[in-house]
Amino acid sequence: MHIIDYIIFVVYMVAMLGVGFYFYKKNTSSEDFYVSGRNMSSWHIGLSVVATDVGGGFSIGLGGLGFTMGISGSWMLFTGLIGAWLSAVFLIPKVSKLGHQYKFFTFPQIFNHFYNGKVALLAGIISAIGYVGFTSSQVLAGAKLASATIDGLDLQWALIVMGAIAVIYTAVGGLKAVIYTDTIQWIILIAGLVFIGIPIAYNAVGGYEVIKATLAPEYLSLTNVSWHQILNWSVTIIPIWFIGMTLYQRIYACKDEKEAKKAWFVAGLFEWPIMAFMGVILGMLAKVAATQGMFEGITDVASMDSEMGLPILLSTILPVGLMGLMLSSYFSAILSTADSCLMAASGNIVTDIISKFYKKELTQKKLLRLSQIVTLSVGGFAILLASQMQNVLELMLYSYAFMVSGLFVPVLGALFWHKSNPVAAFWSMLLGGSTTIGLILSNNKLPLNYSLPEHLDANIFGICVSLITFILLSNYHYKKSTNGI
Fold first, then answer.
1. Is the pTM for the entire model greater than 0.85?
2. Which of 310, 325, 330, 334 could form a disulfide with 63 if both were Cys (CB 3.0 to 4.6 A apart)?
3. Where are the membrane-spanning stretches (predicted)?
4. Contact 181/27 with Cβ under 8 angstroms?
């Protein structure tokens, strides 16, 4: 990159840190830190939600899908639109009222309200583990982008630098800093893709006729996807809208139910079709460029990391100045998700885990400092975890699957089924999450040499185990209580 690009990029990063330190002085309590004082508007929240959900991992991951399967990869985010709108209709009316009435900070506090403290503690542990993994995926996405576009920058150093920036401004600024930076970052990303990335990449590869001649016909078809792939995406992504800690924090942060529902409808439309098609189209253009031999040092397109196609494309085609702007756009997406996931993990650990074992009641000032220290610590661990992983989308979906298979069934039961029982919730969470992780490890990591039926995701089996366990135990305890046994 040219010195001008470096200056643009550094100015952007300093500005993000500046927002964090600005709100550092504004935060006076843990309520300010975790739920922005509960007075945010729908547009700020809506843009923050979609920036968090799509973010860097899906931006880089969507580029990888476009590189390998074409525009059909956009169906992954269609499941995000479905999840957003379903949760707006069914979840928000119940959760918004409870959040404001009982001053909730986190998702597991819903479990403490409907079940008991033991169930809430397990939910907090599952959610924290999942969001630490998700934070790591975003740091890895940023490091991949940085190492591909900045000459001489090693991937491990990129992890440290990118991770440190996200961790610092999140730890000092809290959720309000996260939401405002998300809004800025999302606007920058959309502008960068619409006015810089896609037009220049399209012209650089030679236009539509060249694209059509270079790519296989299925790349330009919306049917180049199997039924089991759509099912796998659906059961992993749709439920996250019902159990995502980042989403509950934003429901609590909204002024009221009406603002929250409006924010969710806005987020759904931005996810699909807007961001979905932008991401996969850029991935497809990267595939065309790689096939044409435009990437220096890459001769075997089939063996290259598909998620690196997009960053390499940007570093290859963008002129001085625009490279810095486009790089800032993609880091906007990455940081907008990393900061939210870090806030979620920190909230779970402080509110749902540490507070369960800490006997003394903390003052608001001490609780705020504890929250900031935990956020810094969790961020450091996430950076370490990212250094051990290679694939962004894989790490994201593993984290999603672990949370969904453990938490989805019990939260639906708590909100919509009067027979729900704490014992059933506890064991369905434990067995559902364990089943998914066990299948993932045995299928991908251990030398057992087998694959799941019909290429189905392990998460499907985890949810089924959770559902069966929940129904059987809930019915058993309900009959036991009504019969006076």
1. no
2. 310
3. 6-24, 45-67, 73-93, 114-135, 155-179, 186-205, 225-248, 269-290, 310-333, 367-385, 397-417, 424-440, 460-478
4. no
Determine the Cα–Cα distance for residues 291 and 340; give it in Å rounded to an integer: 37
Are 88 and 267 contacting, i.e. CB atoms less than 8 angstroms apart? no
- DSSP letter string over 219-271? GG-TT-S-HHHHHHHHHHHTTHHHH-HHHHHHHHHBSSHHHHHHHHHHHHHII
Q: Which two tokens stand for residue 128?
A: 């924290």
pLDDT in tens, 213-242: 999 999 999 999 998 889 988 988 899 899
Tokens of 413: 């039961």
Q: DSSP of 42-100, one letter per residue?
A: HHHHHHHHHHHHHHHHHHHHHHHHHHHHGGGGGHHHHHHHHHHHHHHHHTHHHHHHHHH
**Radius of gyration from C-alpha coordinates of the chain:** 22
- Alpha-carbon dihedral 169, 251, 399, 335, rounded to 10 degrees: -30
414-460 pLDDT tens trace: 999 999 999 999 999 999 999 988 888 776 654 444 466 667 788 88
Residue whose pair of structure tokens reads 């799509």 in the numeric block: 54
